Amino acid sequence: MDKKRGAERVQPSRPTTVTPQPSSKRGAEHHKVDLKGHSESWVRNHMAVGKNALAKLLGAPVATIMTVAVLAIALTLPGFLFTVLSNVQNLTQGWEGETRLSLYLETSLTDEDADRFSRSLLLRDDIAAIDFISRSQGMLEFKKYSGFGDVLDAMNDNPLPAVVVLLPKSRLVADLGIMRAGLQALPEVNEAVLDLEWLQRLDAMLAVAKRAVFVLGVLLGLAVLLVIGNTIKMEIESRRDEIVVSKLVGATDAWVRRPFLYTGVWYGLLGALCAWLIVQIAWLMLETPAQELAQLYRSQFQLSGLGFSGSALLLFMSVLLGWLGAWVAVRRHLREIEPS
């Protein structure tokens, strides 16, 4: 029995089979970059590149100030002319509603005959109101405002004709032209003058001025483009070795291009801000004389600057030109820099 028990004690145990457990996932599989993380990394990178580009510009203040000054001068002229045209248009907006037709009567007519003729015009359906200025009244007003009262007193006869000022009901240019031609044919009328004619000439001149400002703006915009492009070209040449090393370690063209694009954007933004400041200072200098001139003509006209839309357009176009000039320069010259 003892031997049997001893045999039982020394009998080797059966090997236990261990079921292999699935291995845990590796750490690299737990850190997948999702779309949100990629977007945040992209934004952080762009912010860092933009700050570094601005820091480099501020690190060379003399060169930066000279370049920004040239850009500001090129942007100020079209901005200033744009505001001038805008103010002239605002000044002439309400004038078409006061279109009048002036009839200069024959000098052979007496004041009584002229007054009778003006009253007869009230029977017409195309006339809203009539203002009659007799020869004697016209002479008194002319003496008052011309400053030649003594000379006129020495004259025996009154050379001024009676004037009938008509306010037409129609505001259409074609109707006013037909009305003027019909009144000109009357025997009592020496000359019929439509006040709208000078306004039409003014509108034509404003249209020409608009086109000229547009052409000038395009030419100066090309100048801004060339200035920024040449500046970026010089910066690319100064950083040629850095670009070559970056490409050797695997940097893409987009990564190399990004700092120069932000430099162009900063140049455009700084130039636009300086141009906006110059235009505003110019209008502040002109505001007081313009108000005094408007008061002499009993007008409520006030000068207005670029405003929100004009300022936004100036900033947008300047930044766009800065980015475009940098992009053209980098695209052209970056191809020439390749590691050998």
TrEMBL record:
The lineage of its organism: Bacteria, Pseudomonadati, Pseudomonadota, Gammaproteobacteria, Oceanospirillales. Keywords: Cell cycle, Cell division, Cell inner membrane, Cell membrane, Membrane, Transmembrane, Transmembrane helix. It is found in: Cell inner membrane. The chain crosses the membrane at residues 57-81, 212-232, 265-286, 306-330. InterPro entries: ABC3_permease_C, FtsX, FtsX_ECD, FtsX_proteobact-type. Its main location: membrane. Belongs to the ABC-4 integral membrane protein family. FtsX subfamily. Pfam families: FtsX, FtsX_ECD. Residues 1-34 are annotated as: Disordered. This is Cell division protein FtsX. GO terms for biological process: cell division. It is a multi-pass membrane protein. The keyword Hydrolase does not apply. GO terms for cellular component: cell division site; plasma membrane. Residues 215-332 form the ABC3 transporter permease C-terminal domain. Residues 101-191 form the FtsX extracellular domain. Forms a membrane-associated complex with FtsE. Residues 13-24 have a biased composition (Polar residues). The gene is ftsX. Part of the ABC transporter FtsEX involved in cellular division.
